[in-house]
Amino acid sequence: MLEIGAYGKYWPDIHMGPNHASNAHIALKGKVMMPIHWATFNLALHAWYEPVERLVSFAEQKNINLFLPEPGCPTDVDTYNSNWWKKFMSGRE
User: Fold this and answer.
1) pTM for the whole thing?
2) I need a surface site. Which of 1, 12, 38, 93 has the fewest CB within 10 A?
3) Which residues pair with 2 in a beta bridge?
């Protein structure tokens, strides 16, 4: 589990963000990455869903398996991407 949310150019040492978190996952030799610390509080100047959208792109580029369960829904721990946030993005892009 690595945090991916609430990042900005004026506070790069506070949170990793999607790129640094995906690099950390590779350095840690993780098998499946579960991103945390996103879509909870709006603390940065990016859209609340931007961290996971960027992470999905980085994961494809870096060959990382993601575990992205929908909050509150039972899920088997497996390489799984529910895309749950997309249900809430309509009209907010």
Assistant:
1) 0.79
2) 93
3) 35
Tell me the C-alpha distance between 40 and 11, whole Å.
Answer: 19
Our CA angle for 86, 92, 93, nearest 5°, is 85
Residues 6+ apart with CB under 8 A from 67: 32, 33, 34, 77, 78, 79, 80, 81
Mean pLDDT by 10 residues, the chain (93 residues): 91 89 97 92 88 97 93 73 80 57
Cα(35)–Cα(16) distance, rounded to whole angstroms? Answer: 11
Tokens representing 56 are 């999905």
From residue 42, alpha-carbon distances to 5, 28, 37, 38, 55 in Å are 9, 28, 11, 9, 17
